[in-house]
């Protein structure tokens, strides 16, 4: 019902809600191996019921103002409303301290077009400008260069490395913490408007 255009290819950012369970499961099945290399939520999504459970957890977080989940759809100009290819989220949202964390994922068909970078800008704009948040964080495995490239594109600073803190796929990944502060977000970027 509510959709924010994400560029010229009929891509849209919309709330990803409990009633999307079947569509969410189909998307996870298409992207399971790629997404699951670095993030674990796909392990919990193995049926329509478990897909609904995850979406419902985020609906509960949203109701408590503690987290928000959005999907990225492409081909929205086509009949049927497009294809869910990924998402962005406030994994953590703490209005009391003004600190939140954005996360993201795409199935392979959605990559390489700037969709996540644009979607994250929408979330960060909302966090800083509408919600008065002070700090947006981003956590990524050091080897996940596609993810750290998004953090860099968002103007974030790499602040920390938690060595071998995240066991996934038989490897203990170093985790990098990135963040951007409110006054940095609004600072001009080389005189150019954000794409
Ligand atoms: C992390 C992840 C979402 C990044 O995907 P992505 O497609 O590289 O990110 P974006 O949607 O922002 O697109 C950026 C790419 O589109 C290109 N691009 C095209 N137009 C663009 C635009 N207008 N703005 C920004 N980038 C654009 C960029 O050059 C970049 O491609 P490149 O890496 O070949 O240079 C993806 O790799 C993924 O889902 N990985 C698995 C799950 C995961 O690791 N999630 C993050 C956990 S921390």
Automatic annotation (TrEMBL):
One of its GO terms (molecular function) is transferase activity. This is GNAT family protein. SUPFAM superfamilies: Acyl-CoA N-acyltransferases (Nat). It holds the Pfam family Acetyltransf_3. PANTHER family: ACETYLTRANSFERASE, RIBOSOMAL-PROTEIN-SERINE ACETYLTRANSFERASE. Residues 11-178 form the N-acetyltransferase domain. Its EC number is 2.-.-.-. Keywords: Transferase. InterPro entries: Acyl_CoA_acyltransferase, GNAT_dom, Ribosomal_N-acetyltransferase. It comes from Streptomyces evansiae.
């Amino acid at each position: 019902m509510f959709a924010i255009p994400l560029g010229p290819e009929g891509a849209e950012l919309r709330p990803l809600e409990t009633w999307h369970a079947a569509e969410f499961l189909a998307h996870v099945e298409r992207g399971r191996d790629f997404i699951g290399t670095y993030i674990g939520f796909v392990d919990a999504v193995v049926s329509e019921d478990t897909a609904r459970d995850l979406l419902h957890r985020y609906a509960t977080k949203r109701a408590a103002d503690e987290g928000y989940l959005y999907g990225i759809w492409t081909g929205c100009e086509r009949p049927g409303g497009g294809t869910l290819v990924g998402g962005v989220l406030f994994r953590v949202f703490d209005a009391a301290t003004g600190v939140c964390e954005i996360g993201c994922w795409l199935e392979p068909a959605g990559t390489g077009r700037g969709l996540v970078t644009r979607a994250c800008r929408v979330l960060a704009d909302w966090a800083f400008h509408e919600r008065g948040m002070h700090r947006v964080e981003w956590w990524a495995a050091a080897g996940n260069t596609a993810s750290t490239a998004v953090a860099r594109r968002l103007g974030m600073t790499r602040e920390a490395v938690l060595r071998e803190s995240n066991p996934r796929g038989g490897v203990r990944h170093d985790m990098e913490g990135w963040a951007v502060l409110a006054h940095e977000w609004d600072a001009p970027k080389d005189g150019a408007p954000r794409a």
